[in-house]
DNA sequence: TCAATAGTTCATTATTATCGAACTATTGTA
DNA sequence: TACAATAGTTCGATAATAATGAACTATTGA
């Protein structure tokens, strides 16, 4: 049984947030999540075409454990949701500001 | 002879910038640089009291190679200057936004 | 029950962080 | 001029973290 780890909102740290976003792949994942109403499955992470599933899974875990996304299992796939409200309550406006430059 | 490596402004990347700031020590260094008119020597990095010189030197190098600071030797000490204009020309407003939360 | 789909976990390798010790360069002083 | 003090870098080692491919698990549908 898979147990996903999600930090509480108040445990989201700035260094953790920046570290999770300090990777071009993860920036693209989060950026395209924001464009898709903040929600996507792992395999929808089309911005990363030639990427091994395990690597993708790893990136989603980094994002999850930094408090950037919430992952829930729905049927056979994972539903990943951007924790935009939680992040904004900790660091108002920061995520949008970063992602303004992250789409490239 | 010590040669410091500084990327050109146009070579500063978002992922590189975030990665360099994705560390509590470096956040504190940059944050306190901003408060001191964007300039400090390595040994002034008082926010990191019990830190080995070599570790401090390492962090300054990370910041330098990400394009966040410019280091120049002045007499016996290093003068580190925040490259605020260069960063703002690449990512307007981003650094200030991040550092708003970085003082902790 | 069996295959397909969607991801995770494991083991390995590669990076990065931290530290102490040794080194280099600049200054001040006897 | 030589010598110590100051400020920092570089090197080597160790420990923690990240990236990746191979093997595994869980859900769904035929």
Query: Measured on Cα atoms, how large is the radius of gyration of chain A?
Result: 13 Å
Strand content of chain A: 5-15%
Q: Give a count of the beta strands of chain A, DSSP E runs of length 2 or more.
A: 3
CATH class of chain A: Mainly Alpha
Describe the structure.
Two copies of one chain form a homodimer. By secondary structure, chain A is of the alpha+beta class. The first copy, chain A, has one domain (13-102): Winged helix-like DNA-binding domain superfamily/Winged helix DNA-binding domain (Arc Repressor Mutant, subunit A). Chain A contains five helices and three strands. Chain A has helices at residues 14-21, 24-35, 53-65, 84-90, 94-102; strands at residues 39-40, 69-74, 77-82. Chain A has a three-stranded antiparallel sheet. Chain A is globular and about 35 Å long. Chain A starts with 13 loop residues before the first helix and ends with a helix. Chain B binds a DNA duplex (30 and 30 nucleotides) through residues 1-2, 23, 41-43, 51-62, 73, 75-78.
Describe how the helices and strands are arranged.
Two copies of one chain form a homodimer.
Chain A: H1 14-21, H2 24-35, E1 39-40, H3 53-65, E2 69-74, E3 77-82, H4 84-90, H5 94-102
Antiparallel strand pairs in A: 1-3, 2-3
Chain B binds a DNA duplex (30 and 30 nucleotides) through helix 3.
Summarize the structure in short.
The structure is a homodimer of 104-residue chains. By secondary structure, chain A is an alpha+beta fold.
């Amino acid at each position: 049984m898979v147990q996903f780890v999600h930090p509480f909102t108040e445990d989201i740290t700035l260094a953790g947030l920046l570290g999770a976003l300090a990777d071009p792949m993860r920036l693209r994942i989060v950026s395209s999540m924001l464009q898709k109403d903040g929600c996507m499955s792992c395999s929808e992470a089309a911005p990363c075409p030639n990427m091994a599933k395990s690597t993708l899974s790893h990136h989603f875990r980094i994002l999850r454990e930094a408090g950037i996304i919430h992952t829930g299992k729905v049927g056979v796939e994972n539903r990943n949701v951007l924790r935009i409200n939680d992040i904004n309550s900790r660091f108002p406006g920061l995520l949008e500001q970063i992602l303004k430059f992250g789409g490239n």
